[in-house]
Amino acid sequence: MADILKIEDLRKSYAGGFEALKGVSLRIREGEILALLGPNGAGKTTLISTICGITTPTGGHVEVGGHDILKDYRAARSMIGLVPQEINLEPFEKVINTVRFSRGLFGKPADDAALERILRQLSLWDKKDSQIRALSGGMKRRVLIAKALSHEPRVLFLDEPTAGVDVELRKDMWQIVAGLKADGVTIILTTHYIEEAEAIADRIGVIAKGELLLVEEKDKLMARMGKKELEVQLSEPISSVPASLQSQALRLSADGSALIYTYDTNAERTGITKLLSEVAAAGLVLRDVVTRQSSLEDIFVDLVQEGAA
């Protein structure tokens, strides 16, 4: 797939010298979902705002579909849809008129068939004549997405789209995003829900203190950096790790009923066979053995802590 978004050495500084973006470079492929993770103040929203033309960069270069965001801002902006964090809608306006107005802002000709397709895709068609104030929080989020899609952009930014939305509606939103990807829309998602990124993203980007720490295929990232835990559950609890097992990288569970061993899945030897033999030699009786794969959240926390060091 070709790159639809090219970001080179993007910088943003404010009066007083604060650097919100410190030379971010990134290429995003057409039709992919990129999840951008980072703590509060990392620069996620500043990056999106700069690409979308809300904030002016102080350095660097950005192209959307080959259009420079400064020199050819109208063409660049017409390719972008933005779903902001805040729900800021006219409460007394009807859904259909709200979406129709957004389409008109981009100079697009009236096309009620296109708007119907978007509203149906977002399960909003039966609410088209409802006033915004009558909708639930989840439905209002859907209206924001409909507004962002009204001018048929090829790149969609979702800035914390499921903040404050319950679990069921979040899962619905994931399905919506998957449907948009199937239509060829490129999606850049910022989220605090790491399981959201783990569920739907093709690639993961991690940003902290205005710097992009990495961008990598989700599956490769988890395979490269993920670790596994082996939990050796004992038939009887113990008060401490036996002396004969002190050389092993073991920790005892809080209730003393299990020994926990962390190992690298990519290592040539995991050491599990030797460990289990030594556990048996120490006179401990196994009740069960359980393995757990480290999550994307564990990897994210480790990366951010390393970046802050």
Explain what the structure shows.
The protein is of the alpha/beta class. It folds into two domains: 3-222, P-loop containing nucleotide triphosphate hydrolases (Rossmann fold, 3-Layer(aba) Sandwich), CATH 3.40.50; 227-293, Alpha-Beta Plaits (2-Layer Sandwich), CATH 3.30.70. It contains ten helices and 14 strands. The protein has helices at 44-51, 73-78, 95-105, 112-121, 137-149, 167-182, 194-200, 218-225, 272-281, 296-308, and strands at 3-13, 19-29, 33-37, 59-64, 67-68, 80-83, 155-159, 186-190, 203-208, 211-217, 227-234, 250-252, 258-264, 286-293. A six-stranded mixed β-sheet has the order 6-7-8-3-9-10, with helices on both faces. Strands 2-1-4-5 form a four-stranded antiparallel β-sheet. Strands 12-13-11-14 form a four-stranded antiparallel β-sheet. α3 runs parallel beside α5 (137-149). The longest helix is centred in the middle third of the chain and has 16 residues, at 167-182. The protein is elongated, with a radius of gyration of 24 Å. The chain starts with a strand and ends with a helix. The model has no long low-confidence stretch (mean pLDDT 87).
